[in-house]
């Protein structure tokens, strides 16, 4: 059978996007039967082009009629709430037993067209597989590094301490990062724009069947749009809408360039950065009302810019040292220490996940732990844990959570006050016995908790050793306890460095962030 020219163009398209556009051209020219092109990932079908490109539902390949034969000419109905899609025939594109795409026909297709598509479905499936593998190999590392750099540069927004300043800097930052041709902000009924006017958003630009202003104001999530756009005044190829829920801020970027691909995960990251910046502004206002010293604000700003300190220390009658060695360019472990008039506040935490998305949560941690210094002694602990838990639950991050140990040692009576939220046990090593201080609460961000402070009496020469689960990747708790006790005798001044050198032999294959803290009474 001779391969049609337009179908040949699809098979030899240079990229996935070009492939689907060429396939659509072939189907448009092959007849007048309405069709929908679906992308398939792990058996889940997402509409891309055609009659039902805006379908709300996500359907399984078996919903579309998959029956191991590669095609189906049986009629069926897809239903999702009030959505109803009639399917008369389906052709699946597979390779090596994996379905990569499908085309559904919503009326009886012409025999010749259906036969052509079915006959070459194996070649089409193989080509989609090749294109996806090639683009993934080329783009994954590059995209990851760009997203890491994006998080680092976001400190430009996080340095802003007034809400209006956050909004203005966010728009400037996102336009710069995405090389957007124009942009605007909608907030509290006010419009701020570069390269576009409010009248254009209200009257000249349409998205689907709605004016752009009405569409955006009805949106409660971040979305990237590259179709359904109608504008006679401008040539608009895409619109990236960034939604910040806390203060109901909407940022619109027009004709962004794909230096960083705004996929779902990254779009959520962008939204969380704006949200964190807004929360930072709110906490700055609270700190100002409580007359926080300017030096404390400088420390807060430095932590926000660096996300998490690589080393912390204190020597105020109680000796403390902590190290953080992230497994990647950005880590999810966090530690902090703060001396007060009467004692020492400290924290070690571990964000669920790794890399750039976990690093965003360390910014939130830095804001909350700095705020803890506003209260007196151990009274800060339950307020800190409770407010942080409420904040994360309100943001509804799903499976994201934080394990943390918050502690305060009174220098006068050597009493340790603490709250442990799902964190690794803390080693308490003394001359008489070794104990483990275990957690009494779930990790932060999972469910509402009624936090209460526990206490442990310490003595001179006692040692407290705190760590994250990055250490137990290399050594179990019992062996780790023995190792710390041994080093306390032979290497008392550089226990943490020796632990890292002995346990993480290959830095390039480090399994997890390596964070630990030792406190000597």
Automatic annotation (TrEMBL):
Domain (PPM-type phosphatase): residue spans on this chain: 317-521
InterPro entries reported for this sequence: Bact_Sigma-Reg, PPM-type-like_dom_sf, PPM-type_phosphatase-like_dom
Entry superkingdom: Bacteria
GO MF: phosphatase activity
Alphabetical keyword list: Hydrolase
Source species: Seleniivibrio woodruffii
Phylogenetic classification of the source organism: Bacteria, Pseudomonadati, Deferribacterota, Deferribacteres, Deferribacterales
One Pfam family in the UniProt entry: SpoIIE
Protein's UniProt name: Serine phosphatase RsbU (Regulator of sigma subunit)
